[in-house]
Amino acid sequence: MKWCLTLLVALLPFAAHGAWIDPTGKPIPDTESMRSAGDFGVQIVLTADEGQFRQTWNSSKTPPKLSTTNAVRLGASVSALLIFHGCSPNAGGVCDVVAEFILEDTKGKQTPAGGGPVWSGKPMQQRLLQLGQASMTIGFDNTDPVGDYKITANIKDKVSGRALSVVSRLKVTK
Question: How buried is residue 9: exposed, middle or buried, by Cβ count under 10 Å (0-12/13-18/19+)?
C-alpha cells in the first residue's frame, strides 16, 4: 500500500483529466483501489492517523510524505480516505460527489459503514488531485476476529452521473 501511495504522490502533477496517467503521459490501468471513468478518478487509501494524513496532505511540502497502511492490530483503528480528480460542476460551478462505505468482515458479511459528501464545492484546478471530505474510521477490539477485511467505497459524481467503486484490503492482527 505504501508503494502505491508513493506512486500516487509522484503522479500528483500528472493527474490529468482523462483518467490516471504516469509521468510520461501513458494511462495507468485501473486497480481495485484506483479507478477512473472518463476524466473522473478515485483512489481509496487507508491510514492509522486520519488527522495527521490530512495535515500532511494540506502542508506546503511537495510531494507530501503520506503515511498509509494495510494492517491494523486489535485495539487500534484505521481510516479510509478518498483521493479524486475530475468532478463535474453543475450550472452553479459546484461539484456534488458522494460516497458510501461498506465493511466486509473475514466471513464475507457486508455492513454499511457510513458515507457522505466527498466534495461539494468548486472543482480543483486541472491536473491536481483532491483529498475528499468523506472518510470512514473503524476500530477493532478483542471481540473482533483477526484476518482479512475489505473496505469498499462506492462513489458517485451526482452531476455527471459517473459512479466508481474502489476497494482496499485490510489485515487485522493480534
Answer: middle
